Amino acid sequence: MNETQAPSARAKAARPLSDRWYSYLLVAPSLVVILFFALIPLFYAVYVAFHAADLTAGTFIGGFVGLDNFRDMLNNDLFWDAIGRTLTIAVAAVCAEMILGTALAFLVNQLRWFRGPIRALFLLPLAAAPAAVSMIWRYMYDNEFGVYNALTAGVGLPVVNWLGGARTAPLAIILFDIWQWTPFVMLIVLAGLQALPKEPFEAAELDGARFWMVLRRLTFPMLAPVMSLVFVLRAIDTFRLYDPVATMTMGGPGTATETVSYYVYRVGLKYFRMDQASAMSLLVLFAIVVFTGLALRPLMRYHAERAKRG
Fold first, then answer.
1. Are 130 and 244 contacting, i.e. CB atoms less than 8 angstroms apart?
2. Using CB atoms within 10 A as the burial measure, which of 95, 204, 251, 277 is most buried?
3. What are the backbone angles phi and psi of residue 64, rounded to the nearest 5°?
4. What is the pLDDT of residues 215-263, one digit of tens each?
């Protein structure tokens, strides 16, 4: 190799990766995680849903049964009852979380001091493991030495069987979910409030606009994309509610708090009908995907129009 070829060879060897291959390199670890922990289990669940997979029969994967598992699922009244209970809990919890979280976000946004420490305190329920905190709440709901019955007794109210009543047990699950996830709504809405441009509000103040008019005409319309996104995220997560049900009530009393996630767990890992459990999981996944697409359509349309204007 002559002297003119040596510098070019060294330059070629030292040439950095292109932006395209560098982006592939950055995304590759996430794709591997998604492949092994999301896509492969999903495809396997689809395979099991179309086969007989009764562990009590002595073999895991049996013959091809077509749509029989889906037909049995659609005719299963217990499954649809669990869907109804899940929707009831989700609607009540998400609506309360959106209202309380938005109100707290407005209050914290008005603070001039200690805003950072207060936001850090609101992160504590999110940082705790749901199963571990649910066990603490289970003792707080106890009839004899629970905190809530001590409070009700202190004001002269009768003792409430929080986790043993068919009407109070779902309320106990809803209260726990509100406590844990209202800070999530608050933090996201607070971030949206702090990101709003100040010029429209200054102009409204100069024009003498009232507070409620500013909220209705400026604040909430500008916050709509953020609130839509956080509503969809909370709705999806609440529909998959499992941890507090498994640790506090185990679906009881009777089936009063048996959500669809807990029912799928019982069918698959207690009754050992993995084929029916897979079919139920796929139907729930399909419903969540459809709901997400419909709920996020206005948000995607908003961003598309904003990109065109920009």
1. yes
2. 277
3. -75, 130
4. 888 889 889 889 989 999 999 999 999 999 999 999 989 999 999 999 9
Regarding the domain delimited by 77-272, which CATH topology (the fold level of the hierarchy) does it fall under? Answer: MetI-like fold (1.10.3720)
- pLDDT, one tens digit per residue, over 76-107 is 999 999 999 999 999 999 999 999 999 999 99
Rounded Cα gap, residues 213 and 211, in angstroms: 5
Cα gap 142→128, rounded to integer Å: 21
Q: Which residues pair with 54 in a beta bridge?
A: 273
Give CA–CA dist 220/234, Å, rounded: 19
Residue 15 corresponds to which tokens in the numbers above? 């040439």
Q: Is the separation of the CB atoms in 105 and 186 below 8 Å?
A: yes
Q: Tokens for 135?
A: 């066990």
Dist CA 222 CA 56 (whole Å): 56
What is the C-alpha separation between 4 and 293, in angstroms, rounded? Answer: 60
Q: Which two tokens stand for residue 288?
A: 């969540």
Residues with Cβ within 8 Å of 152's Cβ and at least 6 positions away in sequence, in order, are: 158, 159, 160
The answer to whether residues 184 and 234 touch, using CB atoms and an 8 Å cutoff, is yes
Q: Assign 236 to helix, strand or coil.
A: helix
